[in-house]
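Table 4 source record.
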Amino acid sequence: MTPALHKLEIYRRVFALNRALTMVVLNCDQLEKLGFFRPEPVRAWRITIQLLQSEANSELIEALQSWEEKESFHFDQMHREWEKQLQDPNDVLLAAEERKREIREQLKELKQTQKRRPARKP
């Protein structure tokens, strides 16, 4: 199984678990509405299932978040490497020239600012 299919299957299973637990909660609601069974145990079951779902999701999401962060870092590195390979070597030279111009402008402004200030007396 490819990594992409494996990931898809994991998310499917998480979805299936949530769907199944939600169906149990909804069935508890329907049993309670029928009025045939004592409501206290049915409510307790519903709360227990909702607690189970919440705890399961918390654990699953924590594991998924860690996995997604690692994948994000990995794919970001791959993307940067790909961009480097596509970059035109002349772009680096152009960027260096632009930076030199910026520095010259900053120096020029700094000199003009210094000329405008009155000289300090010792």
